[in-house]
TrEMBL record:
Keywords, alphabetical: DNA-binding, Transcription, Transcription regulation
GO MF assignments: DNA-binding transcription factor activity; transcription cis-regulatory region binding
InterPro entries associated with the record: HTH_LacI, LacI/GalR-like_sensor, Lambda_DNA-bd_dom_sf, Peripla_BP_I
Alphabetized Pfam families for the sequence: LacI (PF00356), Peripla_BP_3 (PF13377)
Region spans: Disordered: 1-23
Superkingdom of the organism of origin: Bacteria
Native organism: Actinotalea fermentans
SUPFAM superfamilies in the record: lambda repressor-like DNA-binding domains, Periplasmic binding protein-like I
Name of the protein: LacI family transcriptional regulator
DNA-binding in keyword set: yes
CDD domains for the chain: HTH_LacI, PBP1_LacI_sugar_binding-like
Domain HTH lacI-type: from-to ranges: 23-77
Length: 353
C-alpha cells in the first residue's frame, strides 16, 4: 500500500468500528507541495514563509479539514493560547458585583476574534494568593489582565519583575511607569459628583469612600475633597466603605450618628449608595428631599434603587475591552511604549439628586 493510500485509509477502533481519519501535518505538507517545516511555520504564524507557500498551506488545511495539534503548536510557538483575568477579591464579591460582569464582557469582546481562551483566577488573600502568583510566574498563560488591584497584593511588582505581558484595569500602585494600565479619571469623577451636589444646594456633603488601599478609592475621595475646598465647604464628614452594599449601609449609619445635619452624600460606588438609601429610609430621611445622594458606576444597580440614583457612568466594558486589546498587542508585538489610556466618567442625573 502506498503512503497516500495509507493516509487515506480509515482507522479501525478496538470495537471493529471504522474511525474517522484525522489529517496530519505531513498530509497538509504533501497536499500543499511544501516541506513539513514550512507547513508548520505557516500554521504557526507564517514566519519566513512566502505568500505562495502560505496560500498553498491554507488551501490544504481547508481541503483536508485539518485541525492543528494544540500541544504540538505550543511547543513551536511557546504560547498557551490562553490569558488570565486576575481578580484579587473574595468569591462572593466577584459573583455579585456588576463591575466584574462588565469586566468579563469587555475582555471577552477583545478576545472574540481570536482562538485565545480566558482563564479566571480569583486571587484570594494568603496561601491562595501565593498559588495564583506561582501559576502566573510558571507561564501557564500568555498574559494577564488584573482588575480590582489592592496595595498589599503586590501583583503589580511581581508581574512587572516576571516580564509576563500584563495590563491592569485601574492604576497600579508600584512600577506605575513600567506597567500598562487603563483607567477612568476617578478624581475628576469624584469632583463632578460633588459639584453636582453643591449646585443642587447641598452645603454639608458627606462621602462614603472606597477602600483606601485601592487607587480608585483614593482618587474618588480626592475629587470629593477638592470640590469642597474650592467651594469653601468642610470635608470632615467621611466614612470608609468597601464598594459593597453592606459596607455602604454601615458607613451611612456612622455618618448619621456623627454628622446628623448632612444634606448630601457622594458614595464612591452604586452598591454603597444603594446601602446608604436603605439606611436613610429606615431613619426617615427622604431622598432627595432631606438628603441628596450620588453614586458611581452606573452598571445597572442605579436604575433599580428607590429612588433611582444619580451617578457617574464608569465605562467598565470599554475599559476592559481596551485592556484586552492592549494585552493582545503586547503578546504578539513584544515590548511597546507604556502609555496609560484614561477614560472619562459621565454624570447621569436621576431622581436621587
Amino acid at each position: 500500500m502506498t503512503d497516500d493510500a495509507r493516509s487515506a485509509a480509515p482507522a479501525v477502533g478496538r470495537s471493529g468500528l471504522t474511525m474517522p481519519h484525522a489529517p496530519t501535518l505531513e498530509e497538509v505538507a504533501r497536499r500543499a507541495g511544501v516541506s513539513r517545516s514550512t507547513a508548520s511555520r505557516a500554521i504557526n504564524g507564517g514566519l519566513k514563509v512566502s505568500p505562495a507557500a502560505q496560500a498553498a498551506v491554507d488551501a490544504a488545511i481547508a481541503e483536508l479539514n485539518y485541525t492543528p495539534n494544540r500541544a504540538a503548536r505550543s511547543l513551536v510557538t511557546r504560547r498557551t493560547d490562553s490569558v488570565a483575568l486576575v481578580v484579587p477579591e473574595p468569591d462572593e464579591r466577584v459573583l455579585t458585583d456588576p463591575y466584574f460582569a462588565g469586566t468579563l464582557q469587555g475582555i471577552t469582546a477583545a478576545l472574540d476574534p481570536t482562538d485565545i481562551q480566558l482563564v479566571l483566577l480569583i486571587a484570594r488573600r494568603g496561601e491562595e494568593a501565593k498559588r495564583t502568583t506561582r501559576y502566573l510566574l510558571n507561564r501557564h498563560v500568555d498574559g494577564a489582565v488584573v482588575v480590582s488591584h489592592h496595595r498589599d497584593d503586590a501583583l503589580d511588582q511581581v508581574l512587572h519583575d516576571s516580564r509576563l505581558p500584563t495590563v491592569f484595569v485601574g492604576r497600579p500602585w508600584a512600577a506605575a511607569g513600567d506597567v500598562a494600565f487603563v483607567d477612568v479619571d476617578n478624581e475628576h469623577g469624584g469632583r463632578i459628583a460633588t459639584e453636582h451636589l453643591i449646585k443642587a444646594g447641598c452645603t454639608r456633603i458627606a462621602t462614603i469612600a472606597g477602600p483606601l488601599d485601592m487607587a480608585a478609592g483614593l482618587d474618588r475621595l480626592a475629587g470629593w475633597r477638592s470640590a469642597l475646598h474650592e467651594a469653601g465647604l468642610s470635608d470632615e464628614a467621611m466614612a470608609r466603605g468597601d464598594f459593597t452594599s453592606a459596607g455602604g449601609a454601615a458607613a451611612t449609619e456612622r455618618l448619621l450618628a456623627a454628622y446628623p445635619d448632612i444634606d448630601g452624600i457622594f458614595a464612591a460606588s452604586d452598591l454603597m449608595a444603594a446601602g446608604a438609601l436603605s439606611v436613610l429610609a429606615r431613619h426617615g430621611r427622604s431622598v432627595p428631599g432631606d438628603i441628596k445622594v450620588v453614586g458611581y458606576d452606573d452598571l445597572g444597580v442605579a436604575t433599580s434603587t428607590a429612588p433611582p440614583l444619580t451617578t457617574l457612568r464608569n465605562p467598565v466594558v470599554e475599559m476592559s475591552r481596551a485592556a484586552g486589546e492592549l494585552l493582545l498587542a503586547k503578546i504578539t508585538g513584544g515590548d511597546q511604549e507604556v502609555v496609560p489610556r484614561i477614560f472619562h466618567a459621565e454624570l447621569v442625573v436621576r431622581e436621587s439628586a
